[in-house]
Task: inverse folding
């Protein structure tokens, strides 16, 4: 048996070296990485998972991508697309090895159509760069994941990313018109169209958010949204977490839709203040960061309405940002919160459960109890307006027992979310981190249908294998959870 | 009744009880799709019964067409085979509604107006202001993929549908999505079901996000001498900070259309000709907000209209506003009722191509002396109706030729067009689903996964799926 397996490994290595040579021929030697020290950077993303690819390839255009896929097919090697690697569920990791296709060189904005409010971009364009490029026209790309200064639009499309302002503006899928993609068979396809209501099945609707398991996206046509005339940003400060969560419930129930409604608990605020100095009061139990926008007359009214509800629920103080500088500072505090937390602990584990918004108060109380039970400090910083939680569990990954306890803590929190009628992931994706939790939401029939949809486009399973769906029996592969490294990404 | 259809009926009766099966040919006429009648219609009361019906149909190679209020059975090609009408109107329950969370889960057969009334009690609504509003079911609305004027601000069903339960052609009950407003767990299969005309599965349950009802609203109406000026107004508004809830341009013959009997039934408060004048292009846009915001919209819109060369402007509220909104919403049924041979094209282009696309369409109609009306949504979706006054062979040829040319001119613009509504007799001659699409092969792959034996509405959908 040992001999057999050695022979198989040798064959594998030989094949890999052939594949690497082919890749170098196709892309040039400077566009292929394969030495162990070069691969180190690519064996992790923003999640707590690790998986090392056999090599990394940097295509410059769609033709390169087709060529890489053909090479992968020739040697039957897995292929995995990757943007900036800021994902939080291991979506862009080579779980079963293979060629990691990094889109950082396909980072051109191909077309900006101001009049029709559309842009065509390559997948490696950084989210925030598109908004910067069109800012002078009064437009922006609305999906704003907190990673937007680094994460790519291709990655956003694959994960159907959210962000604070998706509460009113919608997630990535609501902003994508059409896609050019390379199927894992090497076929180049265009899905959807520039004009609305493309006849037939909503293929972009299926492919956006498919976590890189159906196709490699090579071009994206997105919607550009007009920047609002007036933006009002409010910081409501509370002495109890319950008051803050009850405020969110009440704002929703009253039919007020802020464009953003973020909550940070006291623990997180203190971490943030020590690092960002955003001006959050360190002695409070929670703050809500609220934003409303629109024409001046509407935004001013909404700001007053929101402030009234906050005061009704005993907000100690409601501050309104006086200018863009103050507003930016408040948002800096929010968007850099995960970086701030990273200074407190060698490792942290961020969850992404969603609950019906009416269940916020009891869920936050429960998370606190679960933390106490397992002996962890859990910080909460999240998209309160749409019930998308991000509990942060601090632990030391160097202790295997602690890691296992952290995972148990996270699982119990997710279990409670589902009990509340919620979901296991609101914006981070299932990836290789939550695949084992899928059966909590979906039946075997549900998942089989989804697997067969995947197999229809990804018949040999070469594209991003081992993601989203739990391993079925008989597959023979057991995933050994690697030791995590420090979380570095933001949510 | 022949023996084959007697067997079908009796087997269906075993599943749902004899009182829920119709096999009388006279009664079955009501379920006809393009003059083709089924052998039986069946009205299940649960998703479990639907599952059994589909399993039976699959085993017996019987074709199912799912029906609701049957307001839009005319969309698509004639079915290649049609054995069972699966009537979903008895699945009409609200499964759960959490007004505090603005989420809703309903069975597919619930009438849309009934649902709207239930959630209106909590000052909420669904932005599905679609044609046949007073009759259509929620399932039929989603499966047919029809749109409405509110898409200007709220988008279409794909933007606020949270999840779905359905039965596939293999006789498997499955689901996707969930009931929370933000969720990326698993593939968004429910999006595929929107506008799929029931060719992938029988929708049994749908979860939605609901919206707080708007504070007071108004509509701004401006008439223009030319389409170019009316479209200029559309462009002007979309470049401003205003975020209207609706925005449409109507072709110059719409005043006549809105004076017909069907229009009068739909819009009890008549709209004076001074507001919808004949021989003018009419721009209408709804907006909502507090008194200050309403005043701002009014002032800005009037100013923009003046700059764009409007002949007349008006602001509608109260019953007139309700009537104007209903006319916009029911444009398609009104157009269908005004001629026995109405043919309606749905044209999609970029917003800045509305003038070009509509000019090409009107030229084709006018060259052939075919009366026409048009409604162009600000987002670039145009409904272009040809209303021949008679249905002779020569006229048919004219309609076919005009439609052909319009399809090509849209394609030349990089857009696309389909012909969702036309007389059944024209379906063989018309490209109902428009020109062939490059992504069709990718659609076929899905059909094979969901309905490998092709038992759901065979032949009716894009490319004969």
Result:
């Amino acid at each position: 048996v040992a001999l057999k397996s050695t022979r198989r490994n040798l064959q594998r290595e030989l094949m890999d070296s052939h594949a690497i040579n082919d890749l170098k021929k196709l892309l040039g030697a400077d566009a292929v990485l394969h030495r162990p020290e070069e691969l180190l950077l690519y064996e992790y993303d923003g999640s707590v998972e690790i998986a090392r690819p056999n090599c990394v390839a940097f295509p410059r255009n769609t033709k390169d991508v087709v060529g890489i896929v053909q090479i992968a097919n020739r040697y039957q090697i897995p292929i995995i697309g990757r943007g900036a690697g800021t994902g939080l569920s291991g979506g862009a990791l080579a779980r079963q090895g293979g060629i990691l296709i990094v889109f950082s060189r396909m980072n051109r904005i191909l077309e900006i159509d101001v009049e029709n409010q559309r842009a065509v971009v390559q997948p490696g364009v950084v989210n925030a760069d598109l908004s910067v490029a069109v800012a002078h026209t009064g437009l922006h790309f609305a999906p704003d994941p907190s990673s937007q200064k680094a994460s790519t639009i291709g990655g956003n499309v694959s994960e159907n990313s959210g962000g604070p302002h998706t509460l009113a503006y919608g997630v990535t899928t609501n902003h994508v018109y059409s896609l050019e993609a390379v199927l894992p068979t090497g076929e180049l396809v265009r899905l959807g169209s520039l004009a609305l209501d493309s006849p037939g099945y909503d293929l972009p609707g299926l492919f956006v958010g498919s976590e890189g398991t159906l196709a490699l996206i090579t071009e994206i046509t997105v919607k550009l949204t007009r920047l609002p005339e007036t933006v009002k940003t409010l910081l409501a400060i509370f002495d109890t977490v319950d008051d803050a969560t009850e405020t969110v419930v009440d704002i929703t129930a009253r039919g007020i839709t802020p464009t953003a409604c973020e909550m940070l608990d006291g623990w997180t605020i203190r971490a943030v203040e020590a690092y960002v100095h955003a001006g959050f009061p360190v002695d409070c139990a929670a703050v809500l960061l609220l934003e409303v926008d629109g024409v001046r007359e509407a935004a001013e009214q909404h700001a007053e309405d929101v402030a009234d509800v906050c005061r009704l629920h005993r907000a100690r103080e409601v501050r309104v940002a006086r200018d863009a500088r103050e507003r930016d500072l408040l948002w800096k505090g929010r968007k850099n919160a995960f970086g701030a937390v990273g200074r407190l602990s060698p490792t942290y584990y961020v969850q992404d459960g969603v609950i019906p918004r009416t269940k916020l108060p009891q869920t936050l109380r429960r998370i606190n109890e679960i933390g106490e039970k397992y002996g962890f400090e859990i910080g909460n910083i999240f998209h309160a307006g749409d019930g998308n939680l991000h509990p942060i569990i601090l632990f030391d990954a160097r202790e295997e027992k602690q890691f296992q306890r952290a995972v148990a803590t996270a699982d119990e929190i997710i279990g409670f979310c589902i009990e509340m009628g919620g979901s296991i992931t609101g914006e981070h994706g299932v990836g290789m981190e939550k695949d084992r939790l899928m059966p909590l939401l979906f039946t075997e029939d549900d998942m089989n249908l989804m697997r067969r949809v995947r197999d229809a486009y990804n018949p040999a399973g070469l594209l991003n294998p081992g993601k989203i769906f739990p391993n079925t029996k008989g597959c023979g592969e057991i995933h050994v959870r690697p030791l995590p490294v420090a979380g570095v990404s933001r949510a | 009744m022949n023996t084959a259809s007697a067997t079908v009926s009796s087997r269906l009766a075993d599943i749902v009880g004899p009182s829920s099966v119709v096999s009388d040919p006279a009664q079955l006429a009501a379920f006809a799709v393009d003059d083709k009648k089924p052998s039986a219609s069946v009205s299940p009361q649960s998703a479990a019964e639907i599952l059994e019906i589909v399993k039976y149909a699959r085993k017996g190679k019987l074709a199912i067409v799912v029906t609701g209020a049957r307001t839009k059975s005319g969309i698509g090609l004639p079915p290649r085979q049609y054995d069972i009408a699966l009537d979903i109107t008895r699945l009409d329950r609200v499964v759960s509604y959490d007004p505090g969370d603005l989420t809703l889960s309903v069975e597919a057969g619930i009438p849309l107006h009934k649902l709207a009334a239930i959630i209106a009690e909590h000052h909420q609504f669904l932005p599905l202001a679609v044609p046949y509003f007073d009759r259509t079911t929620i399932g039929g609305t989603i499966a047919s993929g029809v749109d409405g004027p509110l898409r200007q601000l709220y988008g279409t069903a794909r933007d606020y549908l949270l999840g779905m339960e359905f039965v596939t052609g293999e006789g498997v009950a499955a689901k996707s999505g969930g009931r929370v407003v933000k969720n990326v767990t698993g593939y968004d299969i429910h999006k595929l079901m929107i506008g799929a005309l029931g060719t992938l599965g029988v929708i049994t349950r749908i979860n939605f996000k609901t919206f707080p009802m708007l504070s007071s609203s108004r509509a701004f109406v401006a008439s223009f001498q030319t389409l170019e000026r009316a479209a200029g107004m559309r462009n002007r508004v979309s470049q401003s900070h205003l975020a209207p809830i609706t925005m449409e341009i109507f072709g110059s013959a719409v005043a006549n259309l809105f004076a017909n009997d069907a229009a009068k039934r739909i819009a009890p408060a008549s709209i004076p000709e001074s507001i919808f004048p004949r021989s003018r292009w009419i721009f209408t846009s709804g907006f909502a907000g507090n008194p200050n915001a309403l005043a701002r919209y009014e002032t800005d819109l009037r100013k923009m209209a003046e700059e764009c060369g409007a002949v007349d402007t008006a602001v509608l509220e109260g019953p007139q506003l309700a009537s104007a909104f209903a006319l916009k919403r029911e444009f398609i049924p009104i157009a269908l009722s005004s001629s026995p041979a109405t043919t309606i094209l749905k044209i999609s282009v970029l917003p800045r191509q509305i003038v070009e696309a509509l000019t090409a369409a009107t030229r084709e109609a006018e060259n052939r002396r075919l009366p026409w009306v048009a409604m162009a949504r600000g987002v670039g979706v145009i409904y272009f109706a040809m209303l021949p006054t008679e249905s002779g062979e020569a006229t048919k040829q004219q309609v076919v030729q005009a439609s052909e040319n319009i399809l090509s001119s849209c394609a030349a613009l990089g857009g696309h067009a389909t012909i969702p509504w036309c007389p059944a007799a024209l379906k063989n001659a018309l490209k109902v689903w428009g020109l062939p699409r490059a992504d069709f092969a990718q659609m076929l792959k899905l059909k094979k996964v969901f309905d490998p034996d092709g038992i759901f509405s065979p032949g009716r959908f894009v490319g004969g799926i």
